Amino acid sequence: MQTDEQAIRENQAAWLDATAKGDLPRILALMSEDVVFLTPSRPPFGRDEFVAAFAAGQGRMTFSSRAEFEEIIVAGDVAYARGRLSITVTPIAGGESSQLAGYTLSVFRRENDGRWVLARDANLLAPVTGSV
Fold first, then answer.
1. Which domains does the chain have, with CATH numbers?
2. Is the distance from CB of 118 to CB of 27 less than 8 angstroms?
3. Helix count (H) and strand count (E) of the chain?
4. What b-and-e string marks burial along 38-53, b requiring 16 or more CB atoms within 10 Å of the CB?
5. What is the largest CA-CA distance in the chain?
6. pTM for the structure as a whole
7. Fewest CB atoms within 10 A around its CB: which of 5, 78, 124, 127?
8. Rounded distance, CA 56 to CA 38, Å?
């Protein structure tokens, strides 16, 4: 039987795979309807803003990501995961790739069907400068 921690790690792996493939429906299935994202230098935003930003990037750039949860704590039907994330964004039309990297704190919620979905996500990603 799969543990809650394994299910949450699989959510993360599925998210990274779906992002690399541009599979928005799959990504949406991995998040709650009331998801909230926290990122540097902008107000919190939800699912609709996420969809709009994703759609704006479709066909213009590709994403490659590496992530690892360093800690997952499960308390009933809520869990939090602390980790690291790095993203490389490459324009399709050519040009320099850019990299962002940093720490994340994600909150997951178990839905009525037993699936773990992303409910809150805070990331401290910043541009990578110098050698990686």
1. 4-127 (3.10.450.50)
2. no
3. 3, 7
4. eeeeeeeeeeeebeee
5. 47
6. 0.92
7. 127
8. 19
